[in-house]
Specification:
single chain; about 70 residues; mainly alpha; two-stranded antiparallel ribbon; two-stranded parallel ribbon; 3 helices
């Protein structure tokens, strides 16, 4: 499970961020920054994490997520 520090927020896991995104149906700029840090991290995402990120990406592409700031 990947945990990333995103200032000024506390450390959160990728699973927590994805759960919130899918639960609320919204994605923010802070979420985008979080995903960028996760993808550029020296620790690779495991298969389950990549599946979850892909699920968010596809929902965004299909217009099922609202982009908010």
């Amino acid at each position: 499970m990947m945990i990333i520090n995103v200032a000024p927020f506390a450390a959160v896991s990728l699973a927590q961020v994805i759960k919130r995104i899918l639960g609320t149906g919204t994605i923010t700029h802070d979420d985008e920054v979080f995903f960028q840090k996760a993808m550029l991290s020296e620790t690779p995402l495991d298969h389950e994490e990549m599946d979850q990120v892909t699920k968010v990406y596809y929902r965004l592409q299909m217009g099922l997520l609202k982009v908010v700031d």
